[in-house]
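**Archive record**
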Amino acid sequence: MFDRLGMRVPIIQAPMAGVSTPAMAAAVAREGGLGSLGVGAMRAQLARAEIHRFRELGGGALNVNVFVHRPARADVEKEAAWIGRLQPEFARCGAGPPEHLREIYTSFLEDDAMLALLAEEKPAAASFHFGVPHPRQVRALHDAGIFLMATATSVREAQAIEAAGLDAIVAQGYGAGGHRGMFDPEADDDKFGTFALVRLLATTCVLPVIAAGGIMDGAGIAAALALGAAAVQLGTAFVGSDESLADEGYRARLFGDPARHTTMTRAISGRPARCLANDFTRWGASLADDLVPDYPIAYDVGKALHAAGKRAGFDGYGAQWAGQGAPLARRLSSQALMQALETEWREASATPV
């Protein structure tokens, strides 16, 4: 795995859509890890520009992540009711909600332009969240020499990744920040912690396993590798980095008390996701999941509320994704963080004399 991806250290920077940047990914790659770009919220043209910017910055190995969610099922009545429920929050911000909601992201399952882009640009790796691609997409990407990974939150999903012919499994524990990678958000969630899931997959699957969720320092890296992971993926650790797109409100919560109270919510986007405690998560805590429109339709109004809140001086309506390791976040550049992680990992892994 390391040879194919040009990695010197077993650290992958998570592809956080809306947070990761070419500068972050390039810094990680220059320090021997695998830098990542989350382009699931982008059109192919913008994704190409981000890949080119990464290369201009002298980055090495790059992972490009896309969403393979089930296309949304529109429900006009449910969406209107959801807009109505959010009306008081918009009023608090001195704004009105959108009249109609849109499916703001195109699933990779239906995005031939993104498939063509990846096949042309040939990043070292491509990764998938919320499921696996069509067989024809897997063939096209493998034909381009791209290493393929997908997120699993359960043994069954890991087995589906192996059956799809991919090259590695990202084992996402329940404590991970951001969206759960569940293939079916309506299915029961086994809620495996990272270390339990890594050990299960390492002993039952043939593919390399990448540990994701709650890993913030070298001790966590060493522990995951000792349980059978081939590498680790860190996201929340990079949210507070200099190169992150996280705004000041997001950073203030990451480095404040809300970091100790992350919660799983569907209210912001329509899919379960772990977020720092904020006004949006508190508002959504008492609402049943079946009231929320499909992802990413619900995210359309969620983003509108965040924008209205920022204009009004409120920072608590954002998608401030973070995992349960958030209190361990550090204010460092991505380069300095990578150097610290490698030093800590090597020290934690050293055999006592």
User: Anything to note?
Assistant: Residues 87 and 347 are 53 Å apart (CA to CA).
